[in-house]
Amino acid sequence: MGSNSGNKFLVDAANIVFDLVHRKKIKFNIGKYDFAVNNGKKRYNNQELAKRRAGFIKRETLNNLPELLEQFEKNISSRGAEVFWASDVKQVLSKIEEIVKNENVSSVVKSKSMTTEEIDLNEYFETIGVEPYETDLGEFIVQLEGEKPYHIVTPAMHKSKEDIDALFHRKFNTKEGSTPEELTLFVREYLRQKFCTSELGVTGANFLIADTGSIALTENEGNGLLSMSFPKIHIVIAGIEKIIPSINHLGLFWPLLSSLGTGQQITVYNSIISGPKQQNEVDGPEKMYVILLDNGRTNLYAQKELYQALSCIRCGACLNACPIYKNIGGYTYATTYSGPIGSLITPHFKGIKEFKHLSFASSLCGKCSEVCPVKIPIHNLLLENRRISVEKKYSSSIENFIASSSTFVLSNSKLIDFVNGNVKSFILKPLFKKMTDNMKEIPELPKKSFREEWKKIK
């Protein structure tokens, strides 16, 4: 692999892929997702048409990205929100620390946001003496366990109800054998106090709406609404790619996000926020800050074909469809964004040299592209990532030797015939055993090639 991240990926993948307990949990949870999504799709007469429309709008948005972001800034600023442009993680955290110190913040409630995971916000809050509380149930669970989200939509997908029961008993001394309903009610009561006492609420944004200067937030638990309305300060942290041109487009994007993300016809809570509390309003924060994050996105935006990856609306459908993700799970990727879309964007966010291995961790079956609600050709773009890594000579000498040797043999039919049978078995069997850690047996390979057998028949 040629990088520390790549070598760790191979080790972690080998360890987890034969963990039968882990695979049972993932199979169960993704199975429930598949069932729900199949039902969610029934709301559409022609979902493929909806996907094509959504994909067209997102591509047109990217073609006009600077102008739309400026329009968003102008419109939301006119209602009292302060917009801050951050080129990297350091600038985001510096701005947040400035707000925290100026407002004397001691605790924060957060709704689910992968962008805040991208900047390790919880860990940073703790270093500056601020107590962060994740308020999405799944995020709350993984925060208690000291873990990161396992999945971009379902953070605790890797845990069974027995795991969560044991965790709550250990952390809060809840009764052993509590039902999911009992544990949910406990969390609701525990967090309600945090909503009432925290000075700051932090959310992400599913969409930034240019023509109204608003953020759109989608959720199922109401914790997002409470995070942005109860505290006196609301901070939104969103990637610059979240922009859409018009509020009218939500009628297309919200159902697609819910049907492919969770299998629902529409999520329970869909909110549009256009600034802090106005003079004639009784609810809402006194101050609102919107932080627009680059953090490698313009690197991706500058790529001729790869820029399409910024169309992603973070539904998680490609993760659930991916045979690699289903086998190695979310943590093996060791990045904020896992699965096919994570493998595509992470090398451009964090550096191709260190993270090129993710683009090779794909079967290229195309299922990710098939399920994508905005028609991103993910598997084709993964190939483009591979091409870039080869052109930049980021491959190791061993990888280069294997590639050149394979090309030499496969381009010559006589050589292919020569390595058939015993020679092929002699080469491949030890290699296969090493790759599968002796957990699988390679079948006996035929003595003659298909071409030789065909000649014999004819």
Under the CATH scheme, the architecture of the largest domain is: 3-Layer(aba) Sandwich
Count of domain modules: 3
Q: What general outline do the C-alpha atoms trace? A: globular
| The first-level CATH class name of the largest domain | Alpha Beta
Helix content: 40-55%
Low-confidence stretches: none
What value does the average pLDDT take? 92
Spatial extent as radius of gyration: 25 Å
Distance between the termini: 44 Å
Judged by helices, strands and strand pairing, the structural class is alpha/beta
| Major sheet summary line | 6 strands, parallel
User: How much of the polypeptide forms β-strand, as a percent range?
Assistant: 5-15%
**Strand order in the largest sheet:** 1-10-7-4-2-3
In CATH terms, what is the fold-level topology of the largest domain? Answer: Rossmann fold
Please summarize what this structure is.
The protein has 458 residues and is an alpha/beta fold. The chain folds into three domains: 4-35 and 298-391, Fumarate Reductase Iron-sulfur Protein, Chain B, domain 2 (Orthogonal Bundle), CATH 1.10.1060; 44-295, Rossmann fold (3-Layer(aba) Sandwich); 397-457, no CATH class.
